[in-house]
Predict the structure.
Amino acid sequence: MSSKPILAEDLENEIHTKLIAKKIFAFETLSSTNDFAKRLAQNDDHDGTLVLANEQTKGRGRQGRHWYAPPNFGLWFSIILKPNQPAQKFGIVSLLAAVAVAKTIEQMTSLEPALKWPNDVFINSKKVSGVLIESQFSNNQPVSLILGFGLNVNQKQGDFPEEIRETATSLREQIKYEIDRVSLLINLLHNLEHLYFEFKEGNFNVIINSWKERCPFLGKDVSIKQSRGEIEGRFENLDEYGRMVLRLEKGEIKHLNAGEQTVIQGGEPCYS
Ligand code: BTN
């Protein structure tokens, strides 16, 4: 099952979304779906275009890390969004992406995924998915968001490169059978659309609460790696912009934006 590439027509026949993936670009191989989507977004007004690759040769992760994306093993795709909400609210899109992945896993398996701020998805303390979000600006205003999803589906543990073998996992490793990537993707796109409509309608709390319900690190002590060093504190809450509310040891409260820092929760090492 894992050797079969996903084609655009596999999705077009089965998908019943109103906005997400109404336009589909599917490739056997790309360097990075985010890079392709960024070029596309400059001339594409459509809200929800999907760019999918069955393999990426230069997949990118957050903080400049590499994302390993071998042929036909996972879901490697980007969605171009043109959100109607103010840019300060874009942090919530980061959360909704992770909630969409977690919900899909819950619906299709008996697994209980855990979220790490802002949008990493873990199962049994190993990372199964991450989302790279990039914005595009025109006249200093963000005009589009590129949501790049990486979800490990049918790899066996030995398929991961040695440097992440201990910290990464796939759905197959967790449930011990292969999953049909087309059904998984279709479900994920439906969940994504549902949450994106909530975002467009300004129902931010629905998203924030769904995220919080799946985060075991809320209320716990965490370490945050920033460009200037590391800070520690209590992960108190998410604010109305999806930022992490961190209480430092002396009581000072900080509101952290995603993108600028890496969270090392519960002493877990970061995984790229
Ligand atoms: C992370 O660091 O956790 C985010 C990983 C995001 C990987 C996906 S795969 C599809 C899209 N294209 C890329 O180059 N990266 C994202």
